[in-house]
Amino acid sequence: MSIDNKLFVTEEEEEDRTQDCADVEDESNDVDMIESENGTSCAVDDRQNENEEEGEEAGEDDEEDDPVVEELPLNISGNDESLHVFQYANRPRLIGRKPAEHPFISAARYKPKSYLWEIDIPLDDQSFYNKDKADADWNGVNIQTLKGVGVENDGQYAAFVKDMQVYLVPIERVAQLKPYFRYIDDVNVTRKQEDAKRNPNPSSQRAQVVTMSVKSVNDPSQNRLTGSLLAHKVADEEANLELNWAEDTFEQFKDSVVKETEGKILIASENQEDYIDNLV
Amino acid sequence: MVAATKKRKSHVHKHVKDEAFEDLLKPVYKGKKITDEINTAQDKWHLLPAFLKVKGLVKQHLDSFNYFVDTDLKKIIQANQLILSDVDPEFYLKYVDIRVGKKSSSSTKDYLTPPHECRLRDMTYSAPIYVDIEYTRGRNIIMHKDVEIGRMPIMLRSNKCILFDADESKMAKLNECPLDPGGYFIVNGTEKVILVQEQLSKNRIIVEADEKKNIVQASVTSSTHERKSKTYVITKNGKIYLKHNSIAEEIPIAVVLKACGILSDLEIMQLVCGNDSSYQDLFAVNLEESSKLDIYTQQQALEYIGAKVKTMRRQKLSILQEGIEAIATTVIAHLTVEALDFREKALYIAMMTRRVVMAMYNPKMIDDRDYVGNKRLELAGQLISLLFEDLFKKFNNDFKLSIDKVLKKPNRAMEYDALLSINVHSNNITSGLNRAISTGNWSLKRFKMERAGVTHVLSRLSYISALGMMTRISSQFEKSRKVSGPRALQPSQFGMLCTADTPEGEACGLVKNLALMTHITTDDEEEPIKKLCFVLGVEDITLIDSASLHLNYGVYLNGTLIGSIRFPIKFVTQFRNLRRTGKVSEFISIYSNSHQMAVHIATDGGRICRPLIIVSDGQSLVKDTHLRQLLDGEIDFDDFLKLGLVEYLDVNEENDSYIALYEKDVIPSMTHLEIEPFTILGAVAGLIPYPHHNQSPRNTYQCAMGKQAIGAIAYNQFKRIDTLLYLMTYPQQPMVKTKTIELIDYDKLPAGQNATVAVMSYSGYDIEDALVLNKSSIDRGFGRCETRRKTTTVLKRYANHTQDIIGGMRVDENGEPIWQHQSLGPDGLGEVGMRVKSGQIYINKSVPTNSTDSPNPNNVNVQTQYRETPVIYRGPEPSHIDQVMMSVSDNDQALIKVLLRQSRRPELGDKFSSRHGQKGVCGIIVKQEDMPFNDQGIVPDIIMNPHGFPSRMTVGKMIELISGKAGVMNGTLEYGTCFGGSKLDEMSKILVDQGFSYSGKDMLYSGITGECLQAYIFFGPIYYQKLKHMVLDKMHARARGPRAVLTRQPTEGRSRDGGLRLGEMERDCVIAYGASQLLLERLMISSDAFEVDVCDKCGLMGYSGWCTTCKSAENIIKMTIPYAAKLLFQELLSMNIAPRLRLEDIFQQ
């Protein structure tokens, strides 16, 4: 789908869409993004579906009920912004009446080959936190880790309005961040190892005749992992990219997008019919 | 693009001269003059011939085969593209392209042996399969085009067949019948049909409940190219588990979801229940399961599952890896996860669970297995595709092994060319395909599946029986099971499957037939549709968070959730509009289901669908102008689709629409209009005139009998040499036709004659549905038929260079041939036209006495000794030699076929039937002089007893008689089309105008006394079929004859000249009557009486007056017992049981 053939959108629809997003996002309203390359980060409060409008516009010809109030110029950037959307699953969208802020983040890790995000959120050890238990059972865990795989998307954009102009920035990947209890797995592993040490397997104690054979290169049973197993192996072996978390960079980001798109004029490369023909 | 290509295609259509369409331009077409006024309400049925012109009756078979050879084959080789060597990592062989029956260099198709020649010469009608390959030889990459890897049997009249698009003259040149529908294969000379198989749809969730056991289960049969497996989500004591064959235990659903990465209980709850508190209450208990098992992390869950997996693997995996593999590929196998994110899988399992929870809450939320919308039809193309992929994989495997074998050799003199070993295995594909089609055993290694009885020999009893076979659907259900559900008539069958045509007895309701206007879809690409959905406003499922999943309607593409939509109605309407404008394939269906809050889109193959006229704002979109254009040949059926006037609906989408039966019934809320109501019947039931007046089982009976009627088979019937062929000598088209009869060309190849029937009692030989036949009618040719029977002989060659020979005829002293050789010619074969009587020889074959030893190299001149093995004619009546054919079969052995013909006139006991399920045998043949006659002197051909009517309620037969009579008087052919046809009052009017009674009754005079009969007799023409059951083939008697070797009792069965059995029940009667001597005679004396020597002392049997046990002849008594009894005693002895006979004198001395 080419970006160029975006048709113009009215303000009402724009607003509609903002609400759409709010509905869809639900509790993961505060969408953050990090630019991994240069470490700057900012937050965008809107996201929209690029081309859901084709059909609707054709269907909604009720000009009288729904007049066009204003037409806004559209800018698309999309050169080197690497936007990632985080969806905080399991977190309420609203705290009281106010939309929830995204949590404080102490560390962020990314595996660029596997698109694996991990962020650490420090736990509030003042309330609902049993320090004794944490120390005794779970190696004194004091952070919550959220983990998510960035999923590719087609035609999702982040947008903001500035000076009565709409700016669209393509989104690279969307990740649903879910709690990841590494400390449990860690404790399990150590416990298993201890168990193995304590009650050694009787079979392993017995003296055994060891026959040695040289592994053939042509052994068909050599490990050829495929599919998901391979992906897991790659992810396990891949090193984390430690990233800094930067707050309050949204304005800066906005400016950079505005600057970048200045002077570029979007021209529709095809008309509506061609567009639909290309789709199906 | 799509639209453009289609347009081009339709232009080509118009330029091709087409006889069937030329017919439309003739002054009178199908009872309609070209100048007649066009009335949409009545004439929209013209769409039907237009549909059949494009689609044809067996189009589903052809479509599916064409799809296979053109599209599916390419997909198969793409999926199995590479052959790599384990030895040489550099080596590779890649399949680039595949073609059937056409070389890449030539623009035309390869020459194939014509189908009729294949039939006669017992060959397989097949075309070579060519592949283009690319492989390494040493350091070079070599491309090779048109490498033949085997031969593919070709479906007749498919686009690879030489009969494709052939006109009548070309068909005649190739000895083919232009009316033959094709759609079958010719393998080793026999015509084989792959019946349509009915199955539960794949990759769809089916929810069922067992109320007695209090179980709800959702199951899905996942089917991909590699594997087939079934996953269940079931309830057990109110808790929900996941079950799969390769996982040893049922896994609590919460654990499964945790293994898929849905770790928090909140999210699990959101995915399964949404905001519905009643579902939440039902489901909550499951969340405890995982904490009871101490499973909190994905790794724990995966290890839990991994420990329970029971698959055999070559490569050892850790428990965690087993768990990942199980979730990623084994469970719900059709959604294979390639990456890290299991969310798609989690959603699918969650949706299954949700359906289970819904059914637990409301037991009505279950699916119906028998609903036609949940069925898929598997056609020839799909079945062959499964088979081919299996064979191709085996071929590649063998190929790889032989490559490895060569490459393994340490120092080869030459660079190895892999092409050299490709031809070695090409026979595997050819013979694998041939064997499967000829035996009907479909064995697929990769699914570990064995299926028998997939193919059947095409029944050539009559044209209609062949046609009926092509539209037949067989079900996977066991016939023996006493279940009513799958056998019942489903309302969703309407218009898709024939409501009348099903066999009686064990297969009743399991074997079905397609209705006249059905189409079966082939697979369509999913990706573009998915893309289109997103454009139409569907939000991608991967981006939706769990909490808002169930707020909106879900969009399911082929059963898999792809997104959600806020405005489902609008979405569905827009999608349909795109389909109507031709942007999307017309066979993709979309419908919404408000109970499940779902929009379902189906692109998969095997769905049954049918065309309907689109209604908009209470107006049918098809107007008289369109029909005029259609009649003028300006547009065809595809244009109706393109113009958005007609669309295909599958069973599920039909449920989403409001369909008017007739144009007068259309109201604004309606969405569609039937093209013609009579299309709810199939081709075979369409023969019945006025079926809507008959009691419904009668129509079903006729459907079974119509296939047994003797008639014309095909235009090439006299050129055929079939095992057994019945032909009617003077077939007539019925006086009362139906539109279906014309559409399927039954009127050109009819099976029956119009008999004048008097419904009255005569002579008493007409009780129990027996018919009285007029002897003069028989003399004139009524019911006359012929049978043609084939004998095949192969002249074998043996390893010692001897071979079978045909001897000449033997002559007596006068130079005349001996009696046995009277019909032989000098070549030792029967001469065409000669009569052969029972005992005479018509192929004088001899085989060498010694065919095993190696030939003696010393004396080559020694004459080989031969033993005569002539083919002798046996039969109660003599036959004539009709054709003698000598040819060479595939394996270069001489093949001789002799066709014997017998002409038969009806005789006592031959079976006849009308088209209303009313069969009867000929009870008496009466001289014409003795038969009743009417005022005009018309004498009936058949007298039928009136008792046949009251209980059978075949009113259609009566109306057929009246319409037929009116037609005779009027000089017209009348119509008895279902839900229409010539109106009874119009027919009565004609009768009255011609001076007959309105009711069809006539005054008749007795042929014997000449007096008026006391009642008016219902009298007129009815179409009668002669059925294949004839006395000549069944009559049997035996005074003495062959006996079975083991028991010395008479053999069984007519073919072995067997005895007539006095069975158990007959025996009971004789015992009850006390006729002991009769019993003794029947059961022993006339059967297997045997005299034994019994020793009175030891009670065992001896022989020749000598007891072997007592070693004496002292106490030997001779007595007669059945041989079977003696056998029993000896068999008992052989297992160490000694039956001892204690003898007494019955008659005291």
Main traits of this protein?
heterodimer; A: 280 residues; alpha+beta; nine-stranded mixed β-sheet; two-stranded antiparallel ribbon; 8 helices; elongated; B: 1149 residues; 23% strand; globular; RNA_pol_III_Rpc5 (chain A); RNA_pol_RPB2_OB-fold (chain B); metal-binding (chain B); RNA_pol_Rpb2_2 (chain B)
Characterization of the model:
The complex is a heterodimer of chains A (280) and B (1149). Chain A is an alpha+beta fold and 280 residues long. Chain A is built from eight helices and 13 strands. In chain A, the strands form three sheets. In chain A, strands 3, 4, 5, 8, 9, 10, 11, 12 and 13 form a nine-stranded mixed beta sheet that branches. Chain A has a two-stranded antiparallel sheet with strand order 1-2. In chain A, strands 6-7 form a two-stranded antiparallel ribbon. Chain B is globular, with a radius of gyration of 36 Å. Chain B is an alpha+beta fold and 1149 residues long. Chain B is 27% helix and 23% strand. In chain B, strands 21, 27, 28, 29, 30 and 31 form a six-stranded mixed beta sheet that branches. A six-stranded mixed beta barrel of chain B has the order 34-47-35-46-45-50. In chain B, strand 16 (442-444) and strand 17 (449-451) form a beta hairpin. Chain B has 30 helices and 53 strands. The model of chain B is unreliable at 1-17 (pLDDT under 50). Chain B starts with a helix and ends in a 15-residue tail after the last helix.
List the helices and strands and how they pair.
The complex is a heterodimer of chains A (280) and B (1149).
Chain A (H helix, E strand, L loop, with lengths): L10 H15 L6 E3 L6 E3 L3 E3 L3 H7 L14 E3 L6 E6 L5 E2 L2 E2 L7 E5 L4 E7 L8 H7 L5 E10 L3 E7 L2 E15 L2 H17 L3 H4 L21 H11 L3 E3 L6 H12 L10 H8 L1
Parallel strand pairs in A: 4-12, 5-12
Antiparallel strand pairs in A: 1-2, 3-11, 6-7, 8-9, 8-13, 9-10, 10-12, 11-12
Chain B lengths: L1 H14 L3 H7 L2 E2 L2 E2 L6 H4 L3 H9 L3 H21 L2 E3 L7 E9 L14 H6 L5 E12 L2 E14 L14 H6 L11 E3 L2 E5 L1 E5 L4 E6 L4 E9 L4 E9 L2 E6 L6 E2 H7 L5 H9 L3 H16 L5 H9 L12 H12 L12 H19 L13 E4 L1 H29 L17 H14 L2 E3 L4 E3 L3 E3 L5 H8 L1 E4 L36 E2 L5 E2 L6 H9 L3 E2 L12 E5 L2 E6 L2 H13 L8 E5 L4 E5 L5 E9 L2 E2 L3 H8 L5 H6 L3 E5 H4 L4 E2 L11 E2 L22 H11 L17 E5 L7 E2 L1 H5 L9 E7 L11 E4 H6 L4 E11 L9 E2 L28 E2 L4 E3 L1 E4 L17 E3 L2 E2 L6 E10 L5 E11 L6 E4 L4 E8 L15 E3 L10 H16 L3 E2 L8 H10 L7 E2 L14 E10 L4 H4 L29 H10 L2 H10 L3 E7 ...
Parallel strand pairs in B: 9-19, 23-26, 30-31, 33-48, 34-47, 35-46
Antiparallel strand pairs in B: 1-2, 3-4, 4-5, 5-6, 7-8, 8-18, 9-15, 10-11, 11-12, 12-13, 13-14, 16-17, 19-20, 21-27, 22-24, 23-24, 25-26, 27-28, 27-29, 27-31, 32-36, 34-50, 35-47, 36-44, 37-40, 38-43, 39-42, 40-41, 43-44, 45-46, 45-50, 49-50, 51-52, 51-53
Helix pairs in contact in B: 5-14, 8-11, 9-10, 9-13, 10-13, 11-12, 14-15, 25-26
